[in-house]
Amino acid sequence: MAGTRMAAPLLALTLGYDKASVGCLLALFALPQVLFALPAGRWADRRGVKIPVRASVAVVAVGGAASAAWPIYPVLCFTAVCAGAGIAAATIALQRHVGRTAHTRAKLKEAFAWLSIAPALSNLVGPLLTGLMIDHAGYRASFLMLATLPLLGWLWIRTTNESPAEVPTGAASGTAWSLWRDRGFRQLLILNWLTAASFDVHGFVVPVLGHERGLSASVIGTILGSFAIAAATVRLAMPTMAVRLREWKLITGALGIAALCFLIYPFAQSPLAMAIFSAGIGMAVGSVQPLVMSLLHQITPPQRHGEALAMRLLLINASSVAMPVLFGAAGGLIGVSSVLWFMGITVGLGTRLSYAIRALGGTGGD
Predict the structure, then answer these.
(1) Which conformational region is residue 48 in: left (phi greater than 0), alpha (psi within -120 to 50 degrees), or beta?
(2) Which of 112, 174, 229, 321 is the most buried (most CB within 10 A)?
(3) pLDDT tens, 186-199?
(4) pLDDT category of residue 324 using cuts at 50, 70 and 90
């Protein structure tokens, strides 16, 4: 997913498509996650982890292979849709599985902190390997490589066992949208949206700025990789930090750091400076998700974990459908710097909301 989100817009720009077209292409990664999130959540509640993940692997691999065979814009759009649909089902199933294997609040935070390291590492490996493949072997080879990665991922999960304790004992009551009646649930999802929007802005801006400044695909991949390294590094410390500190304090500090980096980023002209501020955003964004996931499982009924995770995925990806299109149009009209400044102000305002959720979490223990 991370590699394809880099390769697809770079190829579109190389083929002569404008920023608005790139924004539409990036939006297609999120659109299936909006359409299929709730069905995928209910599917995970019924079938567990292995069947949804197996189907996801097949869909994502087919999408990558298609762009390897026909590297043209319409097929890139098809690949984006396949990647988005596969990620939706796999993400919800995996997060639900991990959440149901932890039986105390401390273990829950620790489990999601460890789980969050995986996407952070993938955000490093994907763009870095993809950039190297593009520079040395071309776009076809890079998409072929990306088509094989999901197949390798299946090897790690095919022997996973689901214990009877992980199976819901009661039926879900009410519609998925009834979860919105809980104020804490709404606040958590809004905070998660801010971090997801930060990721979307960064993923859009770096390839565009890199292309405008004449940077190679490898350098752009390295800048994106610095974001991932920082996210992975801070998540290595999260199991300890989350136990000792209250969630709302960590989230407030993270949003403040992200806001500052967004506001300063337009003044970073060299690749090194861009990598430093990318790392700052990655560190901030990377620390928030495991805390939100832990709190989400604490306040949601066990038989509705899949639906709650689906609602989270739906919201952040509904934003990801609209935001890249908006970023593309705004970037063409008022410049990429204005997009970064706007995001910095928005994330900064979000620190007030993170302070408001302080009643949801304890001190970190049980």
Answers:
(1) left
(2) 112
(3) 888 888 888 888 88
(4) low
